[in-house]
Amino acid sequence: MAQQGRRRHVSITDVAAQAGVSITTVSHVLSGQRPVSAATTAKVRQVIAELGYEPNQLARGLRLQRTNTVALVIPDITNPFYPLIARGLQNVLGPAGMQVLVTSTDADPAAEDAAVQQMITRRVDGLAFAGYQADHRRVTAAAEVGIPVVLLGGRTARPGIDVVSADDVAGGEIATEYLITRAYRRIAFITGAERVGSPANRVLGYRHALRAAGMPYSARLVVREEISRDGGARAMARLLSLRQAPDAVLCTNDVTALGALDAAKDAGLRVPRDVAVMGFDDIEIAALTTPALTTVSIRPLEQGEAIGRLLLGRLDGSAPRAAQRILFDPAVVPRESA
Amino acid sequence: MAQQGRRRHVSITDVAAQAGVSITTVSHVLSGQRPVSAATTAKVRQVIAELGYEPNQLARGLRLQRTNTVALVIPDITNPFYPLIARGLQNVLGPAGMQVLVTSTDADPAAEDAAVQQMITRRVDGLAFAGYQADHRRVTAAAEVGIPVVLLGGRTARPGIDVVSADDVAGGEIATEYLITRAYRRIAFITGAERVGSPANRVLGYRHALRAAGMPYSARLVVREEISRDGGARAMARLLSLRQAPDAVLCTNDVTALGALDAAKDAGLRVPRDVAVMGFDDIEIAALTTPALTTVSIRPLEQGEAIGRLLLGRLDGSAPRAAQRILFDPAVVPRESA
DNA sequence: CTGTTAGCGCATTCAG
DNA sequence: CTGAATGCGCTAACAG
């Protein structure tokens, strides 16, 4: 009955006793931090194998003040954008012996707060945080206590905190310009409730582009909703019921755009003939919808890798003092929906 | 410069000193394990707030022999099936104060091995493992050392190890029966390389259904490939080049089916008129392809939650001694591709 | 080349 | 109602 095997974890003391040496010696054959004779090394290794000894990282962490763990706090692991971030992170952290602790917060401020606190409590070596709220006291607290933090998404830089993001303002601009070029004249934007972060910056780019094109900006064409497929559908429904409905709708991300597509379909409208829909992120699913979703690519896997590199740089001290801000150039991916 | 703020984490000792009490007392106001006078309680709480004290979970874990962490070892977080598992897990574990450590292994045996070892080393309280290989020595090792393990996917039960899975044999059967009902007569199967686990069981169900229908089974119609979109495309290409090509293709999962769809398109074939394609898992994307993918639903979110409940049950000792095996009934989701 | 010891931060037994 | 002391498992001075 393996499950009952309370056969206690074997400790370094057990190994030392069995091998007839001190725990120091065992520690050193493991770490190579100081020379150990071939004979003892062999003996110790043999005992380790026999006993199936696995060093306790908790103890090691307590002693070394380092957990080899990085936290990834995101809105929703179920949004295909984030698994790519997670994968990119692991791709660079894994080879360095680090692991990733993931938490989904549904962008709920209280949940974000709790998650970050949990992570501090666990003494993670680094924190990657993607949130949509303006004020991150807990995140600041993490940074202040010496945990390297990198913010994911285009919020304004904070002193001493690195940021990895798509260039959201530019993204909003090129997306809008693309639509303008395609002769759309009444362009709406579906975004999140918060006035900061990636969604807000994308809206900013959208406004820039409108202004540059000499087109009017109308606040009622910017609808703020929960960032999810359902939220996108609700927002779209609202836009379609406007007396002056838009002829094109830009969505803060692809998941939201999916919902917009749902709503257009429900309303019996054809995309893009009746309304154009455009997303953001270029998740895999975007290429497979009907019509295929025109969107903006922001290379999430590479963003995840960049986060990992930033964190490693902070940890080994090889990074410059100043906060870094890595922006990924967005690119329109023209498909069928706009 | 927050990032530089090496302002050491404050410890229970700091709090005790500042509050003019012993660490024992601080510990007890936090745990409520024994009565503390209202006055001291207030004082201690105040100091905790002032100093921003966060108990160190590493130390607590070392002392308590419990980390409140569960490992999730999966092939690929980028496959939309697994984020749902992860989410389900977190849904039940989160309220219990536990966190999830995720690792993608690409189904590589060496990586799986390393991941599980890492997890043992970190003294996770539980391990959820989804792998495609037959032999999991390291997983067995984890169970033997007292870590509750639950296997995800339909491999044969092991003594004392819980399993959560879709009923893969049944799934293979109903999928095949569905195709037979729709008058397909030459049904192929694209699966993974390993001869165990979910993919193998699905093939088993497929064979059962063929036999029950009095239809011949042909080994050359079962192609083993890497389980990925590209792998699915390669396998499909191979099947289509057969002198006697199949009129329907069952894929071990939706991601693979996506690849099969790609290959059919490349070959200029129409689905389902020229070849039918059917997947497994019912990931979100399946409803959005053109043609929409007919597939088998296996409720991943609920599977993740079941895993969480199983693990919690083992941890609080409320679970029965015997290994449990929770099977989720699969259901065909008819759409357009078959 | 090897061993003794202190201490990382905390929960808990034992003793007031 | 409160404290002192021990040990969880490990690394790194310090001392041969």
UniProtKB/TrEMBL annotation, chains A, B:
UniProt xrefs under InterPro entries: HTH_LacI, LacI/GalR-like_sensor, Lambda_DNA-bd_dom_sf, Peripla_BP_I
SMART domains with a match to the protein in the record: HTH_LACI (SM00354)
Regions annotated as coiled coil: none
Signal sequence annotation: none
Keyword set, alphabetical order: DNA-binding, Transcription, Transcription regulation
Any Pfam family the entry gives: Peripla_BP_3
Gene Ontology molecular-function annotations: DNA binding
Alphabetized PROSITE patterns for the sequence: HTH_LACI_1, HTH_LACI_2
Domain HTH lacI-type: 10-64
UniProt keyword Transcription present: yes
Protein name: LacI family DNA-binding transcriptional regulator
The species this protein was found in: Catenulispora pinistramenti
